[in-house]
Amino acid sequence: MRNERQFSIKTLIGVSAPNQVVPATGNLPLGVEINYSWTGLQRRAWEQCNCFARVGTYANYIGFGNPVALGRTAGAGLFFEPLIRYGHRTYFSVRASVGLTYVTRIYDPITNPTNRHVSLPVSSMIGLSVNGYYQLNSRFHLTVSGNYNHISNGGTRQPNQGLNLPSASLGLTYLTRTSPQPDTQLWTRTPLTRRWLARVLLLGSVRVLPQTATTPEMALPLFGLKLLAGYRLSSAHALSGGVEFVDDQYFREQVKQWRYVNQQYRQATLLAGYEFWHGRYLFTAHMGWNVVRPQPYKPATYQKYGLLYRLNNGLTFGFDVKAFGDDTKGFQLAGGMSF
């Protein structure tokens, strides 16, 4: 059975205006996005999440409504979109996306000091959307969406408050290739033959420490080791936990600047959380307890989100995002083995 192919276009209309900049215009962000995707209708694709799903690429252009302080952005990336009630005239989906975006106006201590949202021209954009579809005919589907996008450099350069972009969308999807939808009630799920999992990952990143009166701007590396074990509840869901060891030279310089006395800058963290598996792709979300750290340093907990890709031989690679609530603290490249 052939995969379906889709091309879509939609508007992006902001529902709130960024106001923590000078000048604050009050104008809403406006943009447009185009997407190309494919939907696997085979049994193997269905078994990944007990649903059909679209996987594809996007490109967007957004004006923030504030050309002086915030400017505009253009970006592209990948998305994964599980479909709900697919095959009915009205159906729904939840979409997660990740990509890179170019921002025309960034922080500058002299010319743009109040834009503390973005300090690198090329940053990451992650997004989540809830979508409703209505089939006008077999080829054209009307789309209504609620979107939440976030632009951040992951703490690579400060300041990095990040920029939140909640928006609503109206669009149209065109199916360039259609296929008869199989009757999934005739399929029986393939049982899991192996439920226990283990993973070893090496971590690495670079963060830029801002210039001070006594030190120059410095690009400083981070190296780490993550050890995880877990149990698969089903083909799509797993629980996992482990430990992470980090040697962060950026944090080492911060400890010096904070004048902590006789404190170890290296860190060890206990992790516990959830994993979503879709074929070779893994989305991980863990809570971390920073059990080894400089004692005056707070907070002692943080969140760790990851997107990984696993090959047949167990080789695994991707990236992690570390955050305290909605404050992104850093991106880390990850690579290793899954067992």
What top-tier CATH class of the largest domain fits best? Mainly Beta
CATH fold descriptor of the largest domain:
Porin
Spatial gap, N to C terminus: 32 Å
Percent of residues in helical segments?
under 10%
Total of domains:
2
Task: Please write the string of helix (H) and strand (E) elements.
Answer: EEHEEEEEEEEEHEEEEE
Query: What's the multimeric state?
Result: single chain
Looking across the biggest beta sheet, what order are the strands in?
1-2-3-4-5-6-7-8
CATH 2nd-level architecture of the largest domain: Beta Barrel
- Overall morphology: flat
Tell me the radius of gyration: 22 Å
The main β sheet shows up as: 8 strands, antiparallel, barrel
Q: Based on helices, strands and strand pairing, what is the structural class?
A: mainly beta
Rounded mean pLDDT score: 89
Q: Tell me the β content.
A: over 45%
Total DSSP E strands: 16
Low-pLDDT runs: none
Number of helices: 2
